[in-house]
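Table 4 source record.
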Amino acid sequence: MLDTLRFHADRKYTLYACAVMDTHVHLVLQPLEESPGAIHSLAGITHSIKSYSANRIQKLYGKQGRVWLDENYDCVFRDDKEYLETLSYVVTNPVKAGLTGTPDEYKWLYYRGQ
């Protein structure tokens, strides 16, 4: 999953942070320009991520069928404070979930500047 998120980074969005958890994924991203004056939509980005990763998962396990639920939660940051709070939440989420001792130890975490 982390490879999928990084594959689409810098093509459709700038990826600032992501944490692949056992049942969900957290992302902090900024859509990039698709064409002059138009940016990639969040729906399109989400579809690309889910489609690409589902195909890889199905091939890996030799199975077919649904991988992802038809849901996502998104928000727009109104200021730097909201951005930094959310970035901190994503980076520390694996620690809070008891999956690792520190963010740097968690191999399914990426944050810009790492």
